[in-house]
Amino acid sequence: MNKPLADRIRPTTLDDVVGQKHLLTKGKALYNLIESGDIPNLIFYGPSGVGKTTVASIIANRTNRALRKLNGTTASTQDIKDIVSEIDTFSAPNGILLYLDEIQYFNKRQQQSLLEFIENGKITLIASTTENPYFYIYPAILSRSTVFEFKPIDSGDVVPAVKRGFDFLSKEYDVELDIQDGVIDRISKACFGDVRKALNSVENCFYAAQTEKGKKTVTMELADELTQKSSVRYDKDGEEHYDIISAYQKSMRGSDPDAALHYLARLLEGGDLPSACRRLMVCACEDVGLAYPQIIPIVKAAVDIAMMVGLPEARIPLADAVILVATAPKSNSGEQAIDKAMADVQKGNYGSIPRQLQNKHFDGEDAEVKGQFYLYPHDFENHWTYQQYLPDKIKNKHYYEYGPNKNEQAFKAYWDKIKGNK
Questions:
Q1: Which of 110, 288, 369, 383 is least surrounded, with the fewest CB atoms within 10 Å of its CB?
Q2: For residues 306 and 325, what is the distance between their CA atoms, to the nearest angstrom?
Q3: Are 187 and 198 in contact (CB under 8 A)?
Q4: Which residues, including other chains, have CB under 8 Å from residue 241's CB and lie 6 or more apart?
Q5: Which residues, 6+ apart, have CB-to-CB distance to 361 below 8 Å?
Q6: Cα 221 to chain center, whole Å?
């Protein structure tokens, strides 16, 4: 069975690598390091299919050290021992360059076992990871390595790789290709910056294309069918998941309905309906809140509908609710008030509940003043009268500040008049 197309046409020079111009343009730090041939320990961090393995392979080919490869998902402690045992032998006289893919799957002990040899320079480590290295890689390894972040590749930069893939297959199978207008652009955009995924789509389109008179025709219909849904980049357990839901809520908070809808679409395309609903409800309460309190039951109703009908129809009530939250007036006065109150409670800054608010109606013999003396507000004009509600210890505490929005200012004006600013 042939290796995947992405492996068969993997670039062998930096000039052929697509994207990553912030790293691989002449004069950039990583480019200069590679060109110098004096390679330090490196960690490549970024999503899959953006060139981490390709650049590591190019580096490995430029060194006279013995190249060894491990994958964190399958390598064992014995594999590490076997590599270490080669140090200073005829098989690795100049040391070892270890390419460790998916290092985040190595446990702490496995990573520690490499530390001594990385430190003395007998092993040069080039590791790649799709997870944030500052969370998943042992700090001592990090402190001895230089981290470079690889970013998703723009669709325009993917185009040359897609063309090269089709050209390669055409020559490999000695068959003429007729690629309809728009196919290359469709594949390049649908891969969401993952070149490997784009080349998988190229391969699938090539094999699925009908052959007539020695010519294969790749149609737009075929490209659409083979690049839908599965091309969406989303990992519910990965860092990108948290980046998307963060951007989703911050876009609603920032009153940008277009951006909020974009991130909602990414959540829904990834099938993550629960996260879309949860953050929407949080944003309605936290960021709109008392500026438009009616929004809370409205959003809850939209979420209930979405959960009841499921995808794809759930997108409709959620879109309505997201636009409403994004365009509504904003106030976080409620959140600020409860945070202040909770901070007091957590510090033990509270006292006994005032007698007039207690649930008991009879006093013990030790009570100096008997009677509850609760004042029922509805017995008074405007359904309000002054009495102390906070414990004596914090009776003058002030948590809630009216927001500057029209709704809260109307409430403030009402109660200033009723209470006489008491």
A1: 369
A2: 16
A3: yes
A4: 234, 235, 270, 272, 275
A5: 372
A6: 32
Question: Tokens 């976080």 sit at which residue?
Answer: 332
In angstroms, rounded to a whole number, what is the distance separating the alpha carbons of residues 382 and 315? 45
Residue spans of the chain under pLDDT 70: 1, 64, 228-240, 360-372, 421-422
- Is 186 exposed, middle or buried (CB count within 10 Å of its CB: 0-12, 13-18, 19+)? buried
Which pair of tokens denotes residue 340?
């202040």
Q: What is the pLDDT of residues 327-384, one digit of tens each?
A: 999 999 999 999 999 998 888 888 888 887 877 665 555 555 555 678 888 989 989 8
Asked if the bond preceding 329 is cis, omega within 30° of 0, the reply is no
Judge contact between 275 and 245, C-beta under 8 A. Answer: yes
The pLDDT of residue 17 is: 85
Buried b (16+ CB within 10 A) or exposed e, 116-145: ebbeeebbbbbbbbbbebeebbbeebbeeb
Backbone angles phi, psi at 242, to 5 degrees: -70, -30
Contacts of 389 (CB under 8 A, 6+ apart): 354, 357
CA separation for the pair 51, 58 (Å, rounded): 10
**43 in helix, strand or coil?**
strand
CB 107 within 8 A of CB 80: no
Beta-carbon count within 10 A of 42 CB? 21
Q: Rounded distance, CA 99 to CA 398, Å?
A: 59
DSSP state of 100: E
Enclosing H/E stretch for 109: helix 108-119
Helix axes 257-269, 315-327, angle to 10 degrees: 150
